[in-house]
Amino acid sequence: MSADMTGDVVILGGGLVGMTLAIGLAREGIASVVVDSSDPATLTAQGFDGRASAISTASWNLYTHLGMAEALAPRGCPIDAIAVTDGMKPGRIDFRPDEGDSSLGRMFANRDLRLVMYETSAREPLIRFLPNAHVASRERGPHGVSVTLEDGRVLAGRLLVAAEGRQSPTRDEAGFTPARWSYHHRAIIAGLTHARSHDNVAWEIFYPAGPFALLPLLDDAEGNHRSALVWTVAEQDAAGVLALPDAAFIGEVARRMGGMFGTIALAAPRTSYPLNFHHTAKVAEHRLVLVGDAAHGMHPIAGQGLNLGLRDVAALVEVLAEGMRLGLDPGDAQMLKRYERWRALDGFMVAGATDVLTRLFGIPGRLPSAVRRLGMAGVQRTPALKRFFMDEARGMSGTLPALLRA
Fold first, then answer.
1. Whose CB has fewer CB within 10 Å in the chain, the N or C terminal residue?
2. 100, part of any domain
3. pTM here?
4. Has residue 191 been placed in a domain?
5. How many Å apart are CA 377 and CA 374, to the nearest integer?
6. CB-CB contact of 107 with 59 (8 Å)
7. Element housing 369 (H / E)
């Protein structure tokens, strides 16, 4: 069967990780075909839906190297500080960069990230993007890979990349068996406007039922102060919280915020998704690699999910570019093994730390709360520890691919 479309790499999943990978490969002269089941027009429709992502310093370096930073910069809100508190009680930690350091990252509405991503990829002749496309079958042979779409088109390449997210059918079909469990919690997402400025501070407020995060965004066109809310509730309580009338929902949110932003209002309908954990140390096999949430899904407690996926992207681009410059096939087993070794420990450490934090702050009772606040006060008074945590949040620790360095 002849192929309707070919590329060095076939990427299944054109989300924030998959499409960024295609752009990174194109900058190295590597052609890709990107297949995505969603509709870009729907994902970039006008309006604010509350979905937002924290982009770490390392991820911002990646966007800079890929030529996306200039278009993104005016759309993002700098994170000048992160406040971590146990139920708004005394003993919080304030993370602030040292004099001369950059911010702790930037917050973007996901719509803005996608708009710039689509615009950038459209200018790359080495990227073929197939939206609204559904995969019927995948084959990996000794010399290449092929993907047949439901409309009959056949795509051919030499490496298959699974970037389809947590429910990756490619990963499951290949027999990868990630460690996984459910937290039996649900994240409720909403956009808020508020009377007082957030002063570019991201808040992580821990309650026994789950973390309550307020993420700073730029003011809207009318000058309204905006934040994205990620509120974790027990699965059995989620339906009730989602069904609350707007006024009652805002009342519950305001109570947990302690009135720090003044009067608040909903800026977008509420949405939600279940919270679970999965991680696979095996992220490569014959002509197949996993990136992003296909390899590791975690609690949003530290906002590291997308950044971890972008670290996968930077490492895979570097490995493939170096290998192909030496004349190696992009599906070369040793090359893919190098990617797997590079990413396995980092993915495990970030996912594991996130899981430990979630469980530690989920222990109810006065004594556990007092112990947590004592530990937080210790971190607050120890500059070296604070610096360590800030470097981790920035994604600037460990052996970094070139695309993540300034």
1. N
2. yes
3. 0.90
4. no
5. 5
6. no
7. helix 366-380
Map tokens 């991680």 to a residue.
279
Where residue 40 sits, what CATH number does that domain have?
Answer: 3.50.50.60
Gap between the Cα atoms of 306 and 262, Å rounded:
31
Backbone φ, ψ for residue 33 (5° rounding): -115, 125
Determine contact, residues 269/229, Cβ cutoff 8 Å.
no
**CA 119 – CA 189 distance, rounded (Å):** 26
Tell me how far apart the alpha carbons of residues 339 and 397 are, in angstroms, rounded to a whole number.
Answer: 18
Show the domain range for 77: 5-179+276-404
Number of separate domains in the chain: 1
**Digitized pLDDT (tens) for each residue of the chain, 406 residues in all:** 467 888 999 999 999 999 999 999 999 999 999 999 999 999 998 877 778 999 999 999 999 999 999 999 999 999 998 888 887 777 777 888 765 566 788 999 999 999 999 999 999 999 999 999 999 999 999 999 999 999 999 999 999 999 999 999 999 999 998 878 787 889 999 999 999 999 999 998 888 788 899 999 999 989 999 999 999 899 999 999 999 999 999 999 999 998 999 999 999 889 999 988 888 879 999 999 999 999 988 766 656 779 989 999 999 999 999 999 999 999 999 999 999 998 876 665 565 556 555 555 555 666 555 555 556 555 565 665 555 555 665 556 667 899 999 8
